[in-house]
């Protein structure tokens, strides 16, 4: 066999898994699509975000928090290996509220989130307008307050994507682009993976193909019913730094552009940017920070993000084809550290930890009532 | 470096670049007016502070950014020169200012 593990998917999730496995000495083959792949890794908002995650599944809250705690070390390792600074920063993040109702709803949401059994106590503060303005002097009069959590941060996700590919190349990971997988067969204690490009064999296989996992998972007895969730983003011209904290919907990148985002639509694979959606996003962002009003938007884009039926990740090893794993999630940036440093070692060891069993795709097998 | 075509409009416009009094012709863009005056660099980049100047002259490359009458990050190649314009080097990133 040419590899110990084949990772199908070369986006952020697949690259993190390949990186984590290669660090442990595994011979890794990455099969990727080409530049026209539906690649959420090139279109995401680049938050390492914790404060609002995990309603309905406190384990996801803990998992996200653990990843955010591991992120600084992960970023330092990558910088040491590649010389690329992915600009991870964790100054804390804000959810800004534009009405008293919104403020009250968000405050209650965080209380309910953290009251769930087993949910981690993620530090946060409820701030009024004056308290928010002390940390964010440029907010407008419409901001009634905010939830601030020191656990939140952000990163340059394009630099992260590049750095992972550089690190993987240096560690001897074989990367094959333009390699769409048509079939995966369990045979001879391993897997035979084929496509128009040829075939590959390895002892293990990790499905990290984002939306492609819905098609691939059943080939090895797994279930990953992910569907596209359309997200649209705007970015302004580069301006001198003035936002020193990320918001859930507005952030200034290390290079100066201000990103506005967070739309979510069920639109199939349509990725056309639509004016009604981006104008609402821009309007809210301008009420938060009136000085955005005079800036030029230089690009807008949208992408098909990966969404499971309940929004949480899917991690599982196949029962019928042991050695086949599925790894798929919405927040590939936030969870990058957990994937590389916690999940990949479990795949290398051949078994997922018990505390991750709640993320198995079998949770969607509950018989439908009515 | 550049010479005007013989059929250029004759009307002369006055403007300043970083305080220096210059002239160009009606119909010039700000970028072409700078080039006609031998000015090849009109901004420094936000990332590394490297000097840059007009390149594509069709609104695509964003290399010709200048401050015009106090407004930063204007694309010089897309703005028609007007009498009395105050053009300045775009030094690094524009500052966002409250309206």
TrEMBL record, chain A:
One CC-aspect GO term: cytoplasm
Top-level taxonomic group: Bacteria
A molecular function (GO) term: oxidoreductase activity
Gene3D superfamilies (UniProt xref): D-Amino Acid Oxidase, subunit A, domain 2, FAD/NAD(P)-binding domain
Keywords associated with the record: Oxidoreductase
SUPFAM superfamilies linked: FAD-linked reductases, C-terminal domain, FAD/NAD(P)-binding domain
Oxidoreductase as UniProt keyword: yes
Domain FAD dependent oxidoreductase stretches: 4-344
Name the UniProt record assigns to this protein: FAD-binding oxidoreductase
Organism, scientific name: Falsiroseomonas algicola
From TrEMBL, chain B:
A molecular function GO annotation: oxidoreductase activity
Record-linked InterPro entries: 2Fe-2S-bd_N (IPR042204), 2Fe-2S_ferredoxin-like_sf (IPR036010)
Superkingdom assignment: Bacteria
Keyword terms: Oxidoreductase
Protein's name in the database: (2Fe-2S)-binding protein
């Amino acid at each position: 066999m040419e590899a110990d593990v084949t990772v199908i998917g070369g986006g952020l999730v697949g690259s993190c898994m390949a990186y984590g496995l290669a660090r442990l000495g595994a011979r890794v083959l990455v099969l990727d699509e080409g530049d026209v792949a539906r690649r959420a890794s090139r279109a995401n908002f680049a938050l390492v975000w914790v404060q609002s995650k995990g309603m309905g599944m406190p384990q996801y809250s803990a998992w996200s928090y653990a990843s955010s705690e591991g992120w600084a070390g992960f970023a330092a390792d990558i910088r040491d290996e590649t010389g690329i600074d992915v600009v991870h920063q964790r100054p804390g993040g804000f959810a800004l509220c534009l009405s008293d109702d919104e403020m009250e709803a968000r405050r209650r949401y965080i209380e309910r989130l953290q009251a769930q059994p087993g949910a981690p106590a993620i530090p946060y503060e409820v701030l009024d307008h004056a308290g928010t303005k002390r940390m964010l002097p440029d907010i407008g009069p419409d901001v009634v307050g905010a939830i601030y959590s020191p656990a939140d941060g952000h990163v340059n996700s394009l630099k992260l994507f590049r750095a992972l590919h550089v690190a993987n190349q240096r560690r001897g990971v074989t990367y094959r682009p333009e390699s769409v997988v048509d079939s995966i067969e369990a045979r001879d204690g391993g897997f035979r993976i084929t496509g128009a490009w040829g075939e590959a064999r390895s002892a293990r296989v990790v499905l990290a193909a984002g939306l492609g996992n819905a098609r691939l998972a059943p080939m090895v007895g797994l279930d990953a019913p992910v569907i596209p969730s359309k997200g649209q983003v705007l970015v302004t011209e580069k301006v001198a730094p003035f936002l020193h904290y990320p918001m859930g919907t507005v952030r200034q990148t290390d290079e100066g552009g201000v990103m506005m985002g967070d739309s979510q639509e069920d639109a199939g694979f349509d990725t056309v940017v639509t004016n009604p959606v981006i104008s609402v996003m821009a309007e809210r962002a301008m009420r938060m920070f009136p000085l955005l009003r005079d800036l030029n938007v230089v690009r807008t884009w949208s992408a098909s993000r990966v969404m499971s039926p309940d929004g949480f990740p899917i991690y599982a090893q196949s029962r019928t084809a042991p050695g086949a794993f599925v790894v798929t999630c919405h927040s590939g940036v936030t969870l990058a550290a957990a994937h590389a440093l916690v999940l990949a070692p479990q795949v290398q060891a051949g078994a997922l930890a018990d505390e991750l069993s709640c993320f198995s795709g079998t949770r969607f097998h509950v018989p439908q009532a009515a | 470096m550049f010479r005007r075509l013989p059929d250029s409009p004759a009307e002369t416009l006055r403007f300043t670049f970083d305080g220096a009094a210059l002239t160009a012709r009606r119909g010039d863009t700000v970028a072409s007016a700078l080039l006609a005056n031998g000015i090849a660099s009109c901004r420094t980049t936000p990332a590394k502070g490297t000097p840059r100047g007009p390149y594509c002259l069709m609104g695509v490359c964003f290399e010709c950014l200048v401050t015009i009458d106090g407004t930063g990050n204007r694309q010089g190649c897309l703005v028609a020169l007007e009498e009395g314009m105050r053009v300045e080097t775009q030094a690094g990133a524009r500052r966002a200012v409250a309206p």
